[in-house]
Amino acid sequence: MDPKTERSRRRGIYLLPNLLTTGALFAGFYSIVAAIDGNLLGAAWAIYIAMFLDGLDGRVARMTSTESDFGKEFDSLADMVSFGLAPAVVIYTWGLDRFPEYIALWARVGWLAAFLFTVAAAFRLARFNTSSKVDDKHFFQGLPSPPAASGIAAVVWLSIDYDIGGIFALIVGLAVTALGGLAMMSNLRYLSFKDFNLGSRVRFGNLLMIPLLLILVSLNPPVVLFSMYFTYAVAGPVIWLWRRVRRSRNSKGTMRA
Prior knowledge:
Residues 5-10 have low confidence and may be disordered. By secondary structure, the protein is an all-alpha fold. 77% of the residues lie in helices and 2% in strands.
């Protein structure tokens, strides 16, 4: 291949992961605009679209050997908009739109919970970017911001599809927002799934997991997606408790020996 053509191809291919990141940023921005316009369902969907594109850009960059410092910084800034600011705006406008009878309560605590989520996402991303040493690439420290944002999107989607309102829905929305923020700032360990390589060979039977997952989600998207978020979010405390129990048993076994 002509060296000039090869250099041109290499310069051009760097556009691919950054275009995906731009798409994720656009989805996050659209989510904010849709929420302000009162299109809360569209705002929730946009967060999931941003998650999909965000999951692709890094993997595409690694598969095509187009990783760069610019791409990492751009991805982090896009994540702050799509998974830090957008979910906070969505959940706050959701409360204003769905709970007029509790407007006084929501005005006092709703924006505080939304801000907690936003600053937690910023803290989580800053800690991830400045971490010079990773103890175990199989785990994240703290709940990642995309799953935390998906919890808010799922709550909004469920409330709209099933016309859920009242103080119960308000409490659930506040809990998912506030606890999601605290989980992002915590030291809990969450599976990273970084060992899942799209370019690696897998057994033919494992391919069935993809259509089965799609079928499962299509049966009842908001319920299944919220269940997936809840399972992943709870996995952090479960892993912490399991490691603590195992460490306690090992220490007792050592003392007896």
